[in-house]
């Protein structure tokens, strides 16, 4: 009996081989991701099917980086699982802003999205390092920081205002670098990058009045 090959089946194999080659430094992948958005909001978006017929599904990994071996990140998941994340020359890396693999450190937390490879690794198309998304209440305001509480806790989290990076959105408006309208007592959504060394947060965006 002749087996009919499904559309995209061959291209799926080729795509994975191509990603493997890229992971080994033998190819350059450019262009938009086929797995979904690459901005910081995409880390918390609902999973979406790939637009690329060559990729049946994407894999999402979260955890803490325990070791870095070349371009492979060893990650301990929150529920006892272990993962190997392969960075390629197509991987988009976010750590408060778009950055490079040199900014990734042991001890960092991450979310990673990519494609399962035959060798058990995940070839990542996007990695978000130390990213946090908190619903908070503003408890204090200083020149270079916001004091925040979240989750019903009285524990204050320090959110650092980073020059030329931190932005605000008021009542769903456009992003602005002007934080003068942030007020004590307001509810706020804070998107930023956790700093493991001092347990503070570098703020990428604070949204109030949403």
Describe, in short, the structure shown.
It contains 1 helix and 13 strands, in the order H-E-E-E-E-E-E-E-E-E-E-E-E-E. The chain is mainly beta.
Number of domains: 2
Q: Radius of gyration in whole Å, from Cα?
A: 20 Å
CATH C-level category of the largest domain: Mainly Beta
Largest sheet: 5 strands, mixed, barrel
**In percent, how helical is the residue content?**
under 10%
Instruction: Give the name of the CATH architecture of the largest domain.
Output: Beta Barrel
Topology:
Blueprint: H1 9-23, E1 59-69, E2 72-76, E3 82-86, E4 92-95, E5 97-99, E6 109-116, E7 122-129, E8 131-142, E9 145-150, E10 157-161, E11 167-170, E12 187-195, E13 200-208
Parallel strand pairs: 3-7, 4-7, 10-13, 11-13
Antiparallel strand pairs: 1-2, 1-6, 2-3, 4-5, 6-7, 8-9, 8-12, 9-10, 12-13
Task: Describe the protein's architecture and organization.
It is built from one helix and 13 strands. The chain is mainly beta and 210 residues long. The protein folds into two domains: 9-129, Copper binding periplasmic protein CusF (OB fold (Dihydrolipoamide Acetyltransferase, E2P)); 131-208, Beta Barrel (OB fold (Dihydrolipoamide Acetyltransferase, E2P)). The strands form two sheets. It has a five-stranded mixed beta barrel with strand order 1-2-3-7-6. Residues 1-32 have low confidence and may be disordered.
